[in-house]
Design a protein that fits this description.
The protein has ten helices and seven strands. By secondary structure, the protein is an alpha/beta fold. It has a seven-stranded mixed β-sheet with strand order 1-3-2-4-5-6-7, with helices on both faces.
Length: 251
């Protein structure tokens, strides 16, 4: 596992808290950034301190090459989290972020024996639920059309040609990482897993959501919310309250 990585590049603390009794590490979706979790951080402050992961290739890291695969991202995040594992820590990942969080948790457990106290998998089927998806090979217009279908991206971004040009490389790389990911057999987590899914999300079927139970020896719960792939935006306060209650009750 690499240890020559700068945590300041990878982690964002929007609302540091001396009062926090728990920490939540948040992993963004494909094409997303740490800023996606700013509202959740504000909601959970000060009881829970949110640490949002910033992938290379976006925002202030736009000049860096995006990671080529999920495993590379997980290795980097695990390397910067391991030295500062000094408080009860949970993981929250939306879409691609759930895969990165899962692989990060596996690396941490194998390397240092640490594990998240809670694992929230949002808008993502279980790691072993394979689909044949090849959108990363599509034309730019088709990638952007997919963003429109999913929602979650401000229209102002999609209407700005310069911003579109800026986000496309990272977006395509993220889709490549997700679509070429293949789950490798290994020891399951022992962390409680809460799966959050949208009723109209084409990315996750009920069976694919429940398949997360195959990846942990801890309890698994599937919670359904109205909405599509970015149902988390419509239910931000409800999900925030759920996360806060789970973390503060167990910490």
């Amino acid at each position: 596992m690499r240890t020559d990585l700068d945590a300041g590049l990878w982690l964002r603390r929007f609302h540091p808290s001396q009062e926090a009794t728990a920490r939540l590490v948040c992993f963004p979706h494909a094409g997303g950034s740490a800023a996606f979790y700013f509202p959740l951080s504000a909601f959970l402050h000060p009881q829970v301190e949110v640490v949002a992961v910033q992938y290379p290739g976006r925002q202030e890291r736009h000049s860096e090459a995006p990671a080529p695969d999920i495993e590379t991202l997980a290795e980097a995040v695990a390397a910067v989290l391991a030295p500062s594992w000094d408080t009860p820590t949970a993981f929250f990942g939306h879409s691609m972020g759930a895969l990165v969080a899962y692989e990060t948790a596996r690396l941490l457990r194998a390397g240092s024996g640490t594990a998240p106290t809670e694992f929230f998998a949002s808008g993502r089927r279980a790691p072993s639920a394979l689909r044949d998806e090849r959108l990363h090979l599509a034309a730019d217009r088709d990638l952007l059309a997919e963003l429109v279908r999913q929602g979650g991206t401000p229209q102002a971004v999609l209407d700005d040609p310069e911003l579109v040009e800026l986000i496309l490389p990272a977006l395509r790389a993220d889709y490549r990482a997700v679509e070429t990911y293949r789950h490798r057999p290994g020891a399951p987590l022992d962390t409680p897993v809460t799966v959050l899914v949208g009723t109209d999300d084409p990315k996750v079927t009920p069976a694919e959501a429940h398949a997360w139970q195959d990846h942990t020896t801890g309890p698994t719960e599937v919670l359904t919310f109205s909405g599509g792939h970015f149902f988390v935006l419509e239910h931000r306060d409800r999900i925030g309250a759920l996360v806060r209650d789970r973390l503060t009750q167990r910490s």
